[in-house]
């Protein structure tokens, strides 16, 4: 994976599982004869999907909902 793409997406969405699912869905769409939204000298569909997301052409719906899914864990000091 190209340096910085994953970090860019993590900064934007903050949920590695949602990123993985969105990239997989887009790669599946590309496999089913959808055309890439960017010009890239690459044949790997996952890489194309990652580049499209990083460039802002593909986004995760309801990305605000991802913040609600982030766990708010507190550590208690019980003995």
Question: In short, what is this structure?
Answer:
This protein has 79 residues and is mostly helical. The protein contains 4 helices and no strands. Helix 1 crosses helix 3 and helix 2 packs across helix 3.
Strand content bin: under 5%
> How many beta-strand runs?
0
Q: Per the principal axes of the C-alpha atoms, what is the gross shape? A: elongated
- Overall mean confidence score, pLDDT: 84
Biggest sheet details: none
Succession of helices and strands: HHHH
The unreliable regions are none
Structural class: mainly alpha
Rg over C-alpha atoms, rounded to the nearest angstrom: 16 Å
Distance between the termini: 45 Å
What is the share of helical residues?
40-55%
The number of helical elements comes to 4
Report on the structure:
The protein has helices at residues 5-13, 16-31, 45-55, 63-69. It is mainly alpha-helical. Helix 1 (5-13) packs across helix 3 and helix 2 packs across helix 3 (45-55). The longest helix has 16 residues, at 16-31.
């Amino acid at each position: 994976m190209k340096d910085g793409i994953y970090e860019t997406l993590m900064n934007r969405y903050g949920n590695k599982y949602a990123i993985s699912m969105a990239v997989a869905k887009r790669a599946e769409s590309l496999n089913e004869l959808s055309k890439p939204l960017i010009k890239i000298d690459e044949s790997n569909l996952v890489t194309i999907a990652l580049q499209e997301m990083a460039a802002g052409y593909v986004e995760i719906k309801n990305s605000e909902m991802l913040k609600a899914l982030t766990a708010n864990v507190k550590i208690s000091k019980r003995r």
